[in-house]
């Protein structure tokens, strides 16, 4: 759950790349876009045993909580996601609206087993 906070720390540090290796990275491009713009951002959290009646759960972070009403606009790093599932990679590639950053086109590396 610390991912939004860690990503903002990475942006403050001026990193060039954020490498993520576990889970579904579909929400991360939008998270990085919003954090770089100084806007509130959230990342969905799945809660075991929760039902639709419980509502949605998310880890939320707002840069204004640290910097006041005018947080700095930061350079957005590239996102490098390690995806072990072919199905997940295909789903991410098929949904350019939510899985692509607003300002960059992604680079996909394809490996084939022989």
Kindly provide the radius of gyration, computed on alpha-carbon positions and rounded to a whole number of angstroms: 15 Å
Uncertain residue ranges: 104-114
Distance between the termini: 37 Å
Structural class of the helix and strand makeup? Answer: alpha+beta
Walk across the major sheet and give the strand order: 1-4
Taken as a percent bin, the fraction of beta residues is 5-15%
How many runs of DSSP E, i.e. beta strands?
Answer: 4
Mean pLDDT: 82
Biggest sheet features: 2 strands, parallel
What is the succession of H and E elements?
HEHEEHEHH
Count of alpha and pi helical runs = 5
Q: Per the principal axes of the C-alpha atoms, what is the gross shape?
A: globular
Helix content class = 25-40%
What's the short story on this structure?
This protein is an alpha+beta fold. The protein contains 5 helices and 4 strands.
Explain what you see.
By secondary structure, this protein is an alpha+beta fold. The chain contains 5 helices and 4 strands. The chain has a two-stranded parallel ribbon. A two-stranded antiparallel ribbon has the order 2-3. Residues 104-114 have low confidence and may be disordered.
List the helices and strands and how they pair.
Layout: H1 3-13, E1 17-20, H2 28-36, E2 41-44, E3 58-61, H3 64-67, E4 78-81, H4 86-94, H5 96-99
Parallel strand pairs: 1-4
Antiparallel strand pairs: 2-3
Helix pairs in contact: 1-2
What tags apply to this protein structure?
single chain, 114 residues, alpha+beta, two-stranded parallel sheet, two-stranded antiparallel ribbon, disordered C terminus
